[in-house]
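Reminder to self: tokens first, then the designed residues, so the page reads top to bottom the way the pipeline ran.
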């Protein structure tokens, strides 16, 4: 499956690398990102579980992540960093990256404003098509994230999307990246492990 998906993604203009595990993916990421690069990180359990934030900080990179409280205005600084790292909610077999966001900062940074964007994707995010991707987001990614954030949404309690009107709703901005944007280089790291939500 990875070979076909890699071929499709490359045809769509993305730079693609595949890895057997997150350890190998992290090693490559640390080689690709230079010590002088500033790095923004989007909200992602995949990236948190990789431990890349700590390693980048330890070696001297400026790193901005709103999940860490060690810098002022981390969202704004992450949006203007040289490099942006995140994951995707779903990827289709025809090479579309489908995402849903609450604020929109993560999805906006996936396709504009950075020298390079790195998107790390576990095999559990691979979906047959757009409909399957939306089903995955609504009934896996969104409920698990809402529960993790202790939000008062119906999906927190039921585990299923009801297209709610809750003020805590996190499904507010939907994006689909069909192909490489004109002025942004997107690196896709496909990892043969289940990662994140």
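Designed residues (197 positions):
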């Amino acid at each position: 499956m990875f070979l076909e998906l890699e071929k499709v993604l490359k045809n769509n203009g993305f730079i693609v690398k595949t890895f057997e595990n997150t350890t190998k993916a992290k090693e490559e990421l640390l080689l690709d990102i230079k010590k002088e690069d500033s790095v923004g990180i989007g909200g992602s359990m995949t990236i948190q579980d990789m431990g890349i934030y700590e390693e980048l900080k330890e070696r001297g990179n400026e790193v901005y992540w709103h999940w860490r409280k060690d810098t002022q205005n981390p969202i704004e600084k992450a949006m203007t960093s040289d490099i942006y790292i995140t994951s995707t909610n779903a990827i289709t077999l025809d090479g579309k990256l489908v995402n849903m966001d609450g604020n929109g900062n993560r999805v906006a940074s996936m396709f504009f404003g950075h020298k390079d964007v790195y998107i790390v994707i576990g095999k559990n995010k691979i979906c047959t098509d757009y409909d399957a991707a939306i089903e995955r987001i609504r009934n896996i990614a969104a409920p698990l994230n809402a529960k993790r954030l202790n939000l008062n949404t119906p999906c927190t309690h039921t585990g299923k999307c009801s297209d709610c009107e809750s003020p805590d709703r996190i499904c507010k901005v939907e994006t689909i990246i069909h192909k490489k944007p004109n002025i942004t280089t997107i690196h896709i790291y496909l990892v043969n492990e289940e990662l994140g939500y």
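The chain has a mean pLDDT of 96.
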